[in-house]
Automatic annotation (TrEMBL):
The lineage of its organism: Eukaryota, Metazoa, Spiralia, Lophotrochozoa, Mollusca. Its main location: mitochondrion. The keyword Transmembrane helix applies. Keywords: Membrane, Mitochondrion, Mitochondrion inner membrane, Transmembrane, Transmembrane helix. It comes from the Eukaryota. This is NADH dehydrogenase [ubiquinone] 1 alpha subcomplex subunit 11. It comes from Aplysia californica. The chain crosses the membrane at residues 110-128, 134-151. The gene is LOC101848136.
Length: 199
């Protein structure tokens, strides 16, 4: 069949990945804490408040369901305000803390989200007048916020690289073996790159 044509690497470099990847929608920055706009204070604070309204709604619903004194409109409104508001304020504090840290540090990374998470947790402790609750929730939110941001930026790569290399023929790989290097392999010798696994 002849020597055939040389094969070339199918790896997508980080430069090309970040240049040509699909950008997130503009409205998404108001509905997620990990949109790449840490230095933008208003959108990040609004996003934090909107995200905080989700656990706030769950907390308010739980407070109403477990009210043993029965349903009373004023009492229900008071309980909703008491348990819904701290989570919204906490989320806004998260976004405000992240953007403030990003502007001071001039960097966008998971450390900003750890600082924002600790501020968010302590805000709940202030609302419920519990220093211990604020300290523990601050540590929890700092850890979770930083971890989520780290995973978002690195695709879960524990080496700390911005992303793992993507290849077009990823479907040919196995779980327990490395991808054979196809660079320089001729089409006429397509199985040559697998010889090291057979020996």
């Amino acid at each position: 069949m002849g020597d055939g044509q040389l094969r070339y690497s199918t790896e997508i470099s980080n430069d090309h990945y970040y240049k040509y990847r699909t950008r997130p929608g503009e409205l998404n920055k108001y509905f997620t804490l990990y949109y790449p706009n840490d230095s933008e204070m208003i959108p990040k604070t609004v996003a934090g408040a909107l995200v905080g309204s989700i656990p706030g709604g769950l907390a308010a619903s739980g407070a109403l369901l477990y009210d043993k004194q029965g349903f009373q409109l004023l009492r229900a409104a008071e309980r909703c305000f008491r348990h819904f508001t701290p989570w919204v304020v906490s989320g806004a504090t998260y976004g405000l803390g992240v953007s403030t840290a990003a502007q001071i540090r001039k960097k966008e990374d998971f450390y900003n989200h750890m600082l924002g998470g600790y501020g968010a947790g302590t805000m709940i402790g202030v609302w419920y007048k519990s220093h211990r609750m604020g300290a523990w929730l601050g540590l929890l939110f700092a850890g979770l916020g930083g971890l989520m941001k780290y995973i978002k930026d690195t695709d879960g790569d524990m080496k700390g690289e911005m992303r793992r290399t993507r290849v077009f023929n990823m479907y040919r790989t196995g779980w327990m073996v490395d991808r054979p290097d196809q660079e320089g392999v001729k089409d006429g010798e397509v199985n040559a790159s697998f010889q090291k696994y057979r020996s």
